[in-house]
UniProtKB/TrEMBL annotation:
It comes from Gracilinema caldarium (strain ATCC 51460 / DSM 7334 / H1). Residues 14-52 form the Helix-turn-helix type domain. InterPro entries: CBASS_pafABC_assoc_protein, HTH_11, WCX_dom, WH-like_DNA-bd_sf, WH_DNA-bd_sf, WYL_dom. Residues 151-218 form the WYL domain. Pfam families: HTH_11 (PF08279), WCX (PF25583), WYL (PF13280). Gene3D superfamilies: Winged helix-like DNA-binding domain superfamily/Winged helix DNA-binding domain (1.10.10.10). This is Transcriptional regulator. The lineage of its organism: Bacteria, Pseudomonadati, Spirochaetota, Spirochaetia, Spirochaetales. It comes from the Bacteria. Residues 247-323 form the WCX domain.
Length: 328
């Protein structure tokens, strides 16, 4: 269902451009057969999108009627049937999503748009956090300047239209801003920040850019094809971060006091929890995030100890020595 909705929204965006969209463009952007594209166009018309076509040479170009805004008066709101539990969950989802400052304004606008639909059923979204019945805990999130919201829209446009882009980016480890061509693949949220998966033709590999460190982002007229077999899921399963490095096996010991907390966490498939005779616990997990793993283990103080890999164990030992020197 989500995939079909995504196809409908992407097709509507492409067709609404001044240049419209050819059947071939829709096939390439949506990875659909010609027959499936025509079925999708039928769905758009059933949803009330007034389409028309023109032939540019041998190419059939689909357009959204230029007077579409004047035709919207007769399109009814969809019927919304929600109960109290639905409203509580919806309010909670809005609050959670708004924690990411990069999309907070868009979330508020979406909430305002949904207001009239919910009012049809006699419901309203709570203005007070306590009214929803679920109170999300505050958390640290990355700063996202208001001027970046146009950047976010441009990035999403580049992803949807599969446009080759030129990006100026400043890595956290360097004061130098580098400019290069990219293929924007997918945008994701993690730890209160937004990250962009891109393919960099110059390097021939996939990289991750933190959106708040993008200094400039321009779309070109050139289109790109998605990398064969690209899927971000393998990188998203790492419990400690979004890292493109090679994975390794980590083993961590936890005290009996911390063992119940570790057991309650939802660890990735393939992880292993070994309860010891004294009630302590040994966690075995695959990760590529060496720095993030060290920081996490250290956060438990003397209640956790990294057993493997040996090179990270030595790094933690040095870190503890440096910390001791700071407190002397």
């Amino acid at each position: 269902m989500y995939k079909q909705l995504s196809e409908i929204l992407t097709a509507a965006r492409l067709i609404s451009r001044t240049s419209g969209a050819t059947i071939k463009e829709l096939e390439n952007h949506l990875h659909l057969s010609r027959r499936s594209v025509y079925r999708l166009l039928d769905t758009l018309e059933e949803l009330g999108y007034p389409l028309y076509d023109e032939f540019h040479g041998k190419e059939r170009v689909i357009f959204l009627n230029e007077h579409r805004d004047n035709l919207r008066w007769w399109i009814p709101y969809p019927q919304v049937e929600l109960n109290s539990e639905d409203i509580i969950l919806l309010e909670y989802l809005f609050k959670e999503a708004a924690k990411t400052s990069a999309v907070a304004n868009e979330i508020r606008r979406l909430k305002e748009k949904l207001g009239p639909l919910l009012a049809e059923g006699g419901y309203t979204l709570a203005g007070d956090l306590h009214q929803s019945g679920i109170l999300p805990a505050p958390s640290l999130s990355k700063k996202f300047d208001a001027s970046k919201h146009q950047l976010l829209k441009t990035i999403l446009q580049g992803i949807q239209e599969r446009a080759v882009c030129i990006v100026s980016y400043q890595a956290i480890s360097s004061a130098t801003v580098k400019t290069f061509r990219i293929h924007p693949l997918i945008l994701m949220e993690k730890y209160g920040g937004l990250y962009l998966f891109v393919f960099v033709p110059y390097y021939g590999n996939i990289r991750i850019l933190a959106v708040e460190r993008i200094k400039n982002f321009e779309l070109t007229e050139e289109e790109f094809a998605m990398p064969a077999h690209f899927t971000p899921e393998p990188w998203l399963t790492d419990p400690f971060g979004i890292i493109l490095n090679k994975t390794f096996t980590a083993r961590i010991w936890f005290s009996p006091e911390q063992a119940p907390y570790i057991q309650e966490l939802n660890w990735p498939e393939g992880s292993n929890l070994e309860t010891q005779n004294d009630g302590s616990l040994i966690l075995t997990v695959q990760t590529a995030a060496d720095y993030e793993l060290k920081r996490w283990v250290l956060s438990f103080g003397s209640s956790a100890c990294l057993l493997e890999p040996e090179h990270l164990r030595r790094e933690i030992q040095k870190e503890l020595q440096d910390m001791e020197n700071l407190y002397q």
